[in-house]
Amino acid sequence: MIQLMIDLQPFVLGLVLAWAGGYKLAGRVAANAAAVKLLGNPARARWAFRLVGGVELAVAALLLAPPVAAAEGWLATGLAAGFVGYLGISQRVAPGSSCGCMSSHAAPVSWRSYARAGLLVAAGIAATQAGALWTRPLAEQPPAFLSLLAVETLLFVAVSPDLDRAWRMRTRQLWARLRPHPLAATATDSDEPLQAVLWRLHHTETYQAAAPLLRSSVLDSWQDGTWWFVTYAAERDGEPVTAVFAIPHLDAMSEVRLALVADPPDESNDTTPAPALAPIS
User: Fold this and answer.
1) Residues of the chain with pLDDT under 70
2) Is the pTM for the entire model greater than 0.90?
3) Domain match, 152 and 212 both
4) What's CA 58's distance to the chain center, in Å?
5) Whose CA is closest to 280, among 241, 250, 244?
């Protein structure tokens, strides 16, 4: 198994360098890449990226193609060591800048960047001891080869901050879509929480149409049978009113009802009941 891991390293390094070299050769440079600040302007950084990208592609071709030679591993190790030096200079000269090594997405240099560089150095040293081209272990032990490749790839991606947007954000978005809303109630809930009721209410056209009239946060709320009632202080035509929303319990948001009820007069001796204004649906 150890020899299989060693024989796998030229293939892994070849893939990584091919990706990095292809990205750099395309001329895309992260807006806040450290190379831009180190070299003075984006044009110089672009040409430097293309030069480094060409070297990376050349080393990748040597690693992926026969014959197997220790010199290829040392070349990859040298590139990885240069990467470590570049990270150190970037943090000192342009703190907060992005590496810009494998993606145009901004990601400040961090411990993950150094961890990735360390993995590449270790893989390069291991590649100097490879005894066979990667095609042989792939043909002889395909399940083990592919399993180790998957593990190493996941580890490499996990310590690559500039690749986060390619997988972490999309994974989070997918997870958010698959999970039920944290405030959503289910049909088996006997008591829907007020937060869920308010979340449903705020997404209705009824609430959004009445929002300009509201003058307070929730004043009161209660549940009566299959209905939730929520009240707000409001104002209509210059007169203070109370907005009473009736939200059906665990039902469609389109059925929310609203009534604007006139507030009682301030005079303490006036016992005339306040008229109710017409409900608005």
Assistant:
1) 27-32, 106, 165-192, 250-254, 265-281
2) no
3) no
4) 33
5) 244
In a domain, 272, yes or no: no
CB 214 within 8 A of CB 234: yes
- For residue 268, what are the contacts with CB-CB under 8 A and spacing of at least 6? none
Two tokens at 234?
Answer: 């409001």
- Tokens matching residue 53: 């990208």
The CATH number given to whatever domain includes residue 198 is 3.10.450
Concatenating the DSSP letter of every residue in 135-162 gives: HHHHHH-HHHHHHHHHHHHHHHHHT-GG
* Number of structural domains found in the chain: 2
Residue 111: is it exposed, middle or buried by C-beta count within 10 angstroms (0-12/13-18/19+)? exposed
Domain that residue 230 falls in:
194-262
Longest alpha-carbon distance in the chain? 103
State in Å, rounded, how far the first CA of the chain is from the last one. 71
Going by the DSSP 8-state scheme, the letter that residue 225 receives in this structure is T
| Contact yes or no for 244/257 (Cβ under 8 A) | no
Q: What are phi and psi of 279, to 5 degrees?
A: -60, 150
